[in-house]
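My current task is to audit a protein record that another person submitted. Alongside the sequence sits a line of tokens, each denoting a local backbone shape. Where you disagree with what is written, explain briefly why. This is what I was given:
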Amino acid sequence: MTQTIDAAVAAQGLTLPAIPRPRGAFLPWSRLGNQLFLAGQICERDGEVLYPGKVGAEFDLETGKLAAQACALNLLASLSDAVEGDMSRVVRCVRMNGFVNVAPGFHDVPLVINGASELFIALFGEHGRHARTAIGVATLPGNAAVEVESIFEIRD
């Protein structure tokens, strides 16, 4: 039996959320051949931002990592939709871009985004390792602490 993304997430002690409703005129995912582009997801559940504010002010590094993990779970919900839940269709995570709403002087942006990267690696092993950019920004939608987007290679 092929494992579902939902079951793999549950095995990590986490829950796969519903795909968040886009906060603009865009789709949660778009496919081009075997590349799946997952739109940026903030750290929200059921339309509510879980971590509103700045990492380095309202939140410490560890809480920032939890916010990044929440973003990754939202990305996984979109991924699951795109592959109809079938983890065997996921070849690998190719790229991740992470954005952290930071207080002035906070320099551990890459460590925050590790919260998302580490979840992908836990789920997909070496196929979860990816190229990545981590950027500190002045603000994000909904005053979210973190936003993450990714690109996956998938098969039919």
About this structure: The first strand starts at residue 29 and ends at 32.
